[in-house]
Amino acid sequence: MKTKSLIPLAVLLLITAGCGKKTSYQTSKGGVTIEQKGDTVTMDYKDKAGGMKVVANDKGVALPATFPKDIPLFKDSLVDVANTMADTMTMHTTFKAPWQEAMQFYADKLKAEGWKVDSVMNLGDNGLVVAKKDTRQCSVMLTKDGDHSVAQIMLTGLPIK
Length: 161
Fold this sequence. Notes:
This protein is an alpha+beta fold. The chain has one domain (2-156). 16% of the residues lie in helices and 47% in strands. The protein is built from two helices and ten strands; from the N terminus they run H-E-E-E-E-E-E-H-E-E-E-E. The protein has helices at residues 6-17, 99-112, and strands at 22-26, 30-37, 40-47, 52-56, 78-85, 88-95, 116-122, 126-133, 136-145, 148-156. The longest helix has 14 residues, at 99-112. The protein is globular, with a radius of gyration of 16 Å. The relative contact order is 0.15.
């Protein structure tokens, strides 16, 4: 799954970017710029189709300006990876509460925001909430990771900007 590759990618970017450096690579297909400012690493890939941007920081990153207002974030969530690409966004968040509590939160709050919740699944060690609204789909994958919980929020079918 694409979202699972974001964390290793962010770690790789942290290792390869160096402290306070900006590096660019160009090919005939497009180019990528990797930049580190303090603890934040940004990878910006551009090609003919548009490209992709990933921002990562263990201490938190800002939500993209285009993040939909009708998508809730669980209380005290720290967004540590934000990925935007064409009509898709993926956010990786961490929080202290049990993931089961967050699963119910996402099911209830998405419904309250006018989303049609298609499924809420407790899969034992993790959970999944899938909802649709207009042309968009929101999938929230939840799990425990050490002393905290993780939610990976994937939005597809967003308006292309």
